[in-house]
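Q: What residues go here?
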């Protein structure tokens, strides 16, 4: 879809929040194959016009989409096995020892081992000329592959980074051999020759991801469905972004951060939150005209139609905690170049930026001013509307058109789980506010969300399916068991699509 013509001002979007890992299939984790296309068909039947995903990057330790190895590379785990079978790079015999997976949960360690073995088998066949010469699609496949390699200017750095990690047995880049940690051109050339096969493997995976994602996005857009992407403001320390752009981050001469990201102590945490990401050296970014950031945002907006930016307040001021501190208490606020940055970004993109600002948490007037100056919609979470006994801006009657209303996000409990565990005062306020006995709490909240004046209304799939806390996608601060929920194929019924359609239609969406 043309970003210049996305009519955010007048169209009332209704959508679903669902990460691709949650799609049903027989392979242990959702992917970009049939389950994804079935979901788009369901969305069309249900009258939905927006699909929101979490960051689509190559995840590292902990499997969090918000800590990828690269701001540009896609997630290999959601490459479709069926697509590789269609390309004749895998066959049914390769799947004979496939485990029996839990259809409602992802066992990441097992899935990574299983899919990596299949990917490597497919790659060995792909580079075997004798094998590929037999394929009817050989010439077209190779031409398409070479075009992708030549047009992806980020790919060589990423593939070398991943190959370097494999060579160093998974160690982070700042613990690598000195000649690869910060290589001169001649040293880099030596490593590229030494690791050429492994580099080719990672290039192959990215070709598959981008081929599949492009096809899926085109299908969704043809059905009238816009895709809302997501990126974290900060990047992982152990990422190709930091490795290849060390001057753009607050690092010492050994590649270690001088300060790291977090948020200060607040009502929810006496010690704040310590995230540990390296912080941006904004002065260096400014000297380059924000070149890296502009490439990053432009790239993401080629993948999606809208883009949510996590921790938007970090563009106004960010909390810097000395590296090595065990809590965020001793941090300090540092100014970020928000207005200058977004002015430059918009000038370079050449159109109004379809950005959604994640403006949750402790937000002050300067953050609101920055958001509103550029017309970015903020977020309204209905679960938060009833946790404060006083009036608050999350209540539907306080919404404005230029915002996105959610029942909850990936960081919230499911609506059913939240309501069960809410304080009685919050439940009472909700029941009186909506004049309900809350026996149908998920749909009470869905109707409230769709009925909001907000231009966009997004419902997590778990709430559409009325699921309890077991289906929660992420619990912030808990290191394991996250990002693993999936739904069964039979959950998406025609009756459910009809109910969503009628509800959206009732409220002009």
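A:
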């Amino acid at each position: 879809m043309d970003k210049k013509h996305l009519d955010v001002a007048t169209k009332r979007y209704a959508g679903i929040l669902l990460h691709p890992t949650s799609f049903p299939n027989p392979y242990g984790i959702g992917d970009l194959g049939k389950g994804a296309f079935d979901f788009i068909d369901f969305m069309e039947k249900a009258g939905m016009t927006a699909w929101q995903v979490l960051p689509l990057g190559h995840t590292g330790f902990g499997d969090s989409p918000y800590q990828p190895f690269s701001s540009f590379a896609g997630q290999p785990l959601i490459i479709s096995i069926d697509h590789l079978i269609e390309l004749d790079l895998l066959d049914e015999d390769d799947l004979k020892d496939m485990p029996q997976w839990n259809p409602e949960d992802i066992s990441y360690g097992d899935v990574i081992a299983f899919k990596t073995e299949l990917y490597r088998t497919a790659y060995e066949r792909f580079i075997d000329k004798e094998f590929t010469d037999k394929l009817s699609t050989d010439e077209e496949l190779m031409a398409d592959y070479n075009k992708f390699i030549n047009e992806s200017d980020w790919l060589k750095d990423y593939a070398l980074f991943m190959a370097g990690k494999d060579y160093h047995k998974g160690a982070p880049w700042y613990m690598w051999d000195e000649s690869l940690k910060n290589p001169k051109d001649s040293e880099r050339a030596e490593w590229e020759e030494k690791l050429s096969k492994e580099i080719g493997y990672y290039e192959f995976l990215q070709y598959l991801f981008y081929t599949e994602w492009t096809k899926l996005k085109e299908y969704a857009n043809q059905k009238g469905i816009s895709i809302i992407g997501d990126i974290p403001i900060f990047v992982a320390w152990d990422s190709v972004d930091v490795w290849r752009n060390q001057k753009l981050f607050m690092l010492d001469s050994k590649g270690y951060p001088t300060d790291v990201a977090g948020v200060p102590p607040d009502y929810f945490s006496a010690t704040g939150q310590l995230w540990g990401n390296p912080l941006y050296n904004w002065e260096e970014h400014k000297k380059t005209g924000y070149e890296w950031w502009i490439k990053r945002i432009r790239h993401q907006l080629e993948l999606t139609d809208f883009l949510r930016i996590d921790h938007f307040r970090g563009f106004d001021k960010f909390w810097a905690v000395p590296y090595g501190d065990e809590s965020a208490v001793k941090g300090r606020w540092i100014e970020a170049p928000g207005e200058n940055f977004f002015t430059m970004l918009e000038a370079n993109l050449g159109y109004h930026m379809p950005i959604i600002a994640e403006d949750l948490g402790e937000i002050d007037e300067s953050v609101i001013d920055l958001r509103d100056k550029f017309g970015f919609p903020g977020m309204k979470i209905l679960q938060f509307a009833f946790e404060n006994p006083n009036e608050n801006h999350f209540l539907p009657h306080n919404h404005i058109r230029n915002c996105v209303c959610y029942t909850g996000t990936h960081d919230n409990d499911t609506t059913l789980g939240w309501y069960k565990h809410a304080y009685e005062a919050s439940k009472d306020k909700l029941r009186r506010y909506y004049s309900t006995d809350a026996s149908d709490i998920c749909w009470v909240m869905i109707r409230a969300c769709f009925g909001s004046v907000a231009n966009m209304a997004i419902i997590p799939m778990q709430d559409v399916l009325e699921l309890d806390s077991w289906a929660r996608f992420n619990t912030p601060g808990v290191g394991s068991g996250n990002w693993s929920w999936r739904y069964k194929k039979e959950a998406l019924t025609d009756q459910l699509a009809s109910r969503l359609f009628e509800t959206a239609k009732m409220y002009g969406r």
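A: Context that may help when evaluating the design: The longest helix spans residues 196-222. The chain has a mean pLDDT of 95.
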